[in-house]
# Entry
Amino acid sequence: MMKFVKILAGSAALFAAASTAQAEKWDMALAYSSTNYHSEIAAEFAAAVTEATAGDLEIVTHPGGSLFGGSEIFGAVRKGLAPIGERLISALGNDNALFEVDSVPFLATGFEGSKKLYEASKPALIEALEESRLHFLYSCPWPPQGFYSVKEANSLDDISGMKFRAYNATTSKMAEGLGMLPTKIEAAELSQAFATGVAQSMISSGSTGYDRKLWEHVGYYYDVKAWLPRNMVIVNGKAWARLSDDNKAAVETAAANAEATCWTKAEELDGWYVEQFEANGMQVKTLNADMQAEFEKVGAELKAAWLERAGDAGAAVLDAYAN
Ligand code: PCA
# Structure
């Protein structure tokens, strides 16, 4: 009898150990506001995984850089400090020039082109991430990038010497090429930067200007459509390897759904953001022909420099995109 009880107790303990070892909670690091569509869709993705795995894998999102700031997320996921996170791909150009392909100026300037460029670059992106022991889940664009300025920008003289807020190397170099002074600032710190005059101009989407209520500080938005940068959601390789096959499949399904929803949402919201600028008293314009030509000239120089850095792998992506 004693022996039987012992066996029972032993197997109960084993069962408890097995179920605690299996159930996992993943904290997901997000850089952008909780109300931004990227963050909202990441929250839906997290809920879908939690539901599909019946809580076996629970994902909890932390938007607005509350777990790790935007510039820390890639390193944190790579080191396993966060099992999962979302990062702006083109800010990672130091790791690999291919990460910057979505921000090559005036290469893909609309959603259709952006999708095509994504497809063309996806195998190389996944491979580069695998080299860093990261598992790629999904990627979603920001709307086309425009130019924000506190002053009307009719000539290079108008913007010369302006303090420019940059989010990646390409935006920094665009600013320098146009005679402005770039500083890297994450989106979460943007309202503060414009309120204090640390920033007077930037290149970004209507989405980020809307999130940060930039009309409170900035009078002009020029709809340049310079490129569509993308975020990606990545998982630490070890965390990924620990998942059961069923849980991996649940995550991949939720990721594919999130990606499709996010692309549609970005395109739907694009025009709406700009309408909100007008409703809040901002002037929404296109650049005059001279200024457009200046932007394109600097853009062409940056494209050539990127091709040089990205080498054959970069050229292969552009070939795949063109065909
Ligand atoms: N918003 C992000 C990146 C690109 C965009 O549209 C930002 O400004 O930080």
